[in-house]
Amino acid sequence: MELLAIDFAIFLEKFILIFVVIMASLLIAMYTTYAERKVAAIIQDRYGPNRAGPFGLLQPVADGVKLFFKEEIIPLSSNKLLFILGPSLAMLTAMLTSSVIPWGGDIELFGRRISLEIADVNIGILFVFGVVSLGVYGIMIGGWASNNKFSLLAAVRGASQIISYELAMGLSLIALLMMTGSMSLGEIVRQQMGGAWGGLLGWNVFYQPLGFLIFLVCAFAECNRTPFDLPEAENELNFGYHQEYSSMKLGFYLFAEYINMFISSAIMATLFFGGYDIPFVNEVTLADKIGLNLTTLLGTFSLLIKIVFFLFLFMWVRWTIPRFRYDQLMNLGWKKLIPLALANMLVTGAVILLLKK
Amino acid sequence: MQALTKRVKVLEQKPMTIMERLYLPAIAKGMMITFSHIFKKKATISYPEQKRPFSPIFRGLHILNRDEEGRERCTACGLCAVACPAEAITMEAAERKKDEEHLYREEKYAARYEINMLRCIFCGLCEEACPKDAIYLTETFAPANYTRKSFIYGKPDLLIPNPVDEPAGFEKAKGLIEERKANMRNNKTE
Q1: pTM above 0.80, yes or no
Q2: Which of A126, A320, A154 is nearest to A229 (CA)?
Q3: Helix-strand-coil percent breakdown of chain B, rounded to 5?
Q4: Contacts of A10 (CB under 8 A, 6+ apart)
Q5: Closest among B176, B178, B188, B185 to B60, alpha carbons compared
Q6: Chain A positions touching chain B (beta carbons under 8 Å)
Q7: Which pLDDT tens digit goes with each residue over A335-346?
Q8: What does the pLDDT look like over A231-259, one tens digit per residue?
Q9: Peptide bond between residue B85 and the one before it cis (omega within 30 degrees of 0)
Q10: Contact A212, A272 (CB under 8 A)
Q11: Of B61, B118, B53, B45, which Cα lies nearest the Cα of B88?
Q12: Which residues of A touch B46 (CB under 8 A)?
């Protein structure tokens, strides 16, 4: 019976946690579409959706219902299996990354200490990178299976863009990893919480501003957001890789983009902005005063605020900057960001060596 | 080459400075501009609740006027149909019978009076041509419909409420017509 001596409650708690995180990501992605339209409208001196429900808050529900009831068209000349696999894969990879993000500290329930991170694996960042690289398959398969020249062109663009920017993204992170000495996202957050001013000065963005900038630019490219939205450049490619898709399959592609945005905002907040750290507050003394659970909840709230800020940044940039030309995109990726990231890595390494002496 | 106008401006194409090549200052500047628009007044008018005020001499759908006793003013002289550049107005004249004196103001009246709203260009020449104070344009416009036929407005659609049956509706229409007359007069003197 030695083998069965597993703590079975851990399955239950992880299952509940996974359920909550997935539901929350879906809900937030839903309302990000609403926020995107609202922000776009406000920046363009309009009102945005305001008919469905108070302030148009039911608009994403209406959109979802509409997409579900649309006729599903699978082109005759398409590869059916791949055609269905494309959006599913896009959605899956978008959701997978959320498993290693520390959504908060620990909570105590029924005498058990439960971590709000679904899987605190020691190669968290590597996992994120692996899954994000898989995300390109969603685009590639969808574009290929549609048997449409525009879709294929867009898929090829998307693939090469994501691969190019992944390099600079990884290089910018290596400098960060040299500093933290750990790949576990939970550990990186815990290290940042130790800084002065209640953890604020411990945030990695103050030690790696260039690394953050490179990571931010690459995150925009990875999410296919303006100014790097070449895979769905409407005026050149009609609609990009999801041109032939309709109904909820199209919805999945669009939705995956917003979940990707949400997750990459969460990763940026975790890696560079202290994750669930509350600035100007020492979490340990706060936990003594108001209890552990409440502190953790406040921490999660603080993480959400950081995420919302990044989401707003994504939209703000989208409605400000026009799209890059394809050669400009490649120039920026290969000739500017990668050398910059390499230099950043070199300087970080040198400084660490000097300080260790 | 000789410049065609004196407004030609020759642009100097200098290579970009380092600050310009960084893009980031320019992007930050652009983002501040879009951010400032968040606080600007919205240009949108939320249509069904808010309506844009029409000009005082806006030319919408037509109405046919009645006098104080509810008699139709139109005598089917045909001046409006002649004035109409779109040939949208059709009418048939008839002679008033003995017992119809309470219905029509003068001996001749329009038995049929139709305006094709799909032909009408809402120029208002008919109301200017009318010598009998009978036709006016209003601030309403033709609603959407399914058939072409339904855009041909006959006398029941055009006539204002009869003071004998609906005094309130008549008073309202009368007020609108008086206002319109005043506005048209003002517009002429300017």
Answers
A1: no
A2: A154
A3: 35, 15, 50
A4: none
A5: B176
A6: 42-47, 50, 213, 316-317, 319-321
A7: 888 999 999 999
A8: 777 777 777 788 888 888 888 888 888 88
A9: no
A10: yes
A11: B118
A12: 47, 50
Domain boundaries, chain B: 62-189
Q: Do B38 and A42 touch (CB under 8 A)?
A: yes
Domain B62-189 has CATH 3.30.70.3270: yes
Q: Return the domain boundaries, chain A.
A: 2-356
- Asked if A43 lies within 8 A of B38 by C-beta distance, the reply is yes
Identify the pLDDT of residue A309. 92
Q: In what order do the strands lie in the sheet with B89-95?
A: B89-95, B108-116, B152-153
ipTM score:
0.73
User: DSSP assignment of A152-193, as one string?
Assistant: HHHHHHHHHHHHHHHHHHHHHHHHHHHHH----HHHHHHHHT
Asked whether the beta carbons of B131 and B174 are under 8 A apart, the reply is: no
| Shortest CA distance from B44: residue in chain A | A46
What number of CA atoms fall less than 13 Å from residue A135's CA on the CB side?
30
Q: Which of B62, B136, B66, B75 is nearest to B110 (CA)?
A: B75
CA distances in angstroms from B144 to A333, B30, B87, B120, B148, listed in the order given: 54, 43, 21, 15, 10
pLDDT digits (tens, 9 = 90+) for A203-218: 888 888 888 999 999 8
Q: Is B7 on the interface with A (CB under 8 A)?
A: no
B:37-56 residues touching chain A, CB 8 A cutoff: 37-38, 40-44, 46
